[in-house]
């Protein structure tokens, strides 16, 4: 039934009726913005909003509940978009993501439940954080599709030692990054394409094999979230490609080539798992809720609305 | 004559007439906002604006030229302030900072010149970046005056290894931080006071002796900019205080005390030297201008206007 889901509202309706059975919302309602969802007790709202303001690359705040306890309207944090353009009349933040996670006093209570109607209170505030699905469409359109899409895998995500600027109770957190391999010669183009998507992580924050050490990533082949990255054929671990330069000749065979631009290198972007990690790390009291990983809230605004 | 300078406009008028002879604008027109000034060829404006948007803690962008080449009006980057409230009718970005630095093709051409009338072209764009003078007033008012103010010294500033999120031509830059010593027990209060000043670096980004290593600061007693930090009496190097706990007894004598809260630790904030460093590092072509260190542009908006 996914082919019949072409708008954000249709995607939310399917979620609400528990009719989305995909592994993720990737590819649902193409061109519509998808958001990470974090729902907090109101006493943490100021600190969280400020955490996002201080760390906009990994935590791009798009919108939040119109007021405390409001589950059906948002105010915008994007200059050129109103709240009702981001999420229109027909929305229910408690039911419109396909699956939710529920934490009580920082311990997981429920995993992948269909809604949080029972848990939501008039003291909760929902935050919508940008997601990299937006710029992936733009990369694919420009002829530079992310490898994990071609291979039907999830994007690899890594914990780093790059520290967030703290905000109130949110201290000691670090960036989580997503990684997509590109040829060295294509990095500038990839940077240019994703730069416009400032509200969904924007251009890469680092790249190259040296960046793996710089960011403190333990093992490029063992991401903390998502699937392990592979070479272009989907056969070898991506880490084995380090220092290898390969390109296909006219017969479709691999050959050695000395042009440095052909080397594939890891390219890293800020990742929306960052604020979730920061929330988990803060040891909050009370009930905290989030979408289940990969099962985003689909919005009424379009990717292009966010491109600056 | 400084006592007669009570408004931002008066401070700028004195600068324009070359009548400010202080070592810095610190303490001029108390309560009025002061800004770091960076003036770039227009082709770098988008990348620089984006650099600030991606790194708001060390690079809090307050305003910029109303349009390319405009030297007498700004547009605001602060939600609740208009451009003409930040810098009103009577302003001249080429003359209203006490002293300027001029760089040509990334090499210093002029140091501490009185104006940049000859260098300014209709292709230049001026950027105004927040400065920590704003929250220092608030700290002093709350009974927690920064030590360097009490000792009549400049705040120490350090290069770190904490990397900025890159933006276009601005790559590989790192945070510059300022440091003010506080007792461990006062850190939460200091965080609360400065948090409101999000447009002028906000709350600290790290603190404690462990932060010195974490940030990659080479020697706490040898800052890259400003004056070396001292103990409370202004006699010993601050680095010697590491692990020492002292408090005065009733007779005013120092005594040993076992309460950890009495230990003085370094507290670090984002610093407005960061964007200048990033600009220098980028190896830009053409004429780049900036205020001379410490000789800020005094604005018409007040510190309290920026406090959220």
From TrEMBL, chains A, B:
Keyword Hydrolase: no
Keyword Lyase: yes
Domain of life per record: Eukaryota
UniProtKB keywords: Lyase
GO MF annotation list: D-glutamate cyclase activity
Acidic residues: compositionally biased ranges: 250-262
Pfam families, A to Z: D-Glu_cyclase (PF07286)
One GO-annotated biological process of the protein: glutamate metabolic process
Region (Disordered): 1-26, 226-262
Stored PANTHER family: D-GLUTAMATE CYCLASE, MITOCHONDRIAL
Family: Belongs to the D-glutamate cyclase family.
Name of the protein this chain belongs to: DUF1445 domain-containing protein
């Amino acid at each position: 039934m996914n082919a019949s889901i072409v708008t954000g509202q249709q995607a939310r309706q399917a979620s609400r009726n528990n009719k989305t059975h995909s592994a993720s919302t990737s590819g649902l309602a193409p061109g519509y913005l998808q958001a990470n969802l974090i729902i907090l007790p109101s006493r943490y709202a100021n600190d969280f909003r400020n955490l996002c303001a201080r760390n906009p690359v990994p935590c791009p705040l798009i919108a939040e509940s119109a007021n405390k306890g409001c589950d059906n309207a948002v105010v915008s944090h994007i200059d050129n978009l109103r709240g009702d353009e981001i999420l229109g009349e027909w929305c229910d933040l408690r039911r419109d993501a396909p699956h939710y996670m529920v934490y009580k006093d920082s311990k997981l209570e429920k995993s992948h439940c269909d809604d949080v109607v029972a848990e939501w209170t008039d003291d909760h505030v929902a935050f919508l954080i940008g997601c990299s699905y937006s710029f992936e469409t733009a990369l694919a359109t420009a002829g530079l599709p992310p490898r994990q899409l071609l291979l039907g895998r999830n994007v690899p995500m890594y914990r780093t030692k790059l520290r967030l600027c703290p905000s109130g109770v949110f201290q000691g957190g670090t960036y989580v990054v997503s990684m997509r391999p590109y040829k060295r010669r294509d990095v500038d183009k990839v940077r240019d394409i994703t730069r416009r998507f400032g509200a969904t992580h924007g251009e890469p924050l680092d790249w190259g094999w040296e960046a793996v050490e710089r960011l403190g990533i333990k093992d490029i082949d063992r991401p903390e979230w998502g699937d392990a990255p592979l070479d272009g054929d989907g056969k070898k671990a991506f880490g084995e490609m380090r220092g290898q330069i390969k390109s296909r000749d006219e017969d479709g065979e691999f050959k050695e080539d000395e042009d440095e631009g052909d080397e594939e290198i890891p390219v890293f972007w800020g990742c929306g798992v960052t604020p979730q990690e920061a929330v988990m790390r803060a040891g909050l009291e009370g009930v905290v809720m989030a979408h289940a990983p990969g099962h985003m809230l689909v919005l009424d605004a379009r990717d292009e609305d966010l491109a600056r």
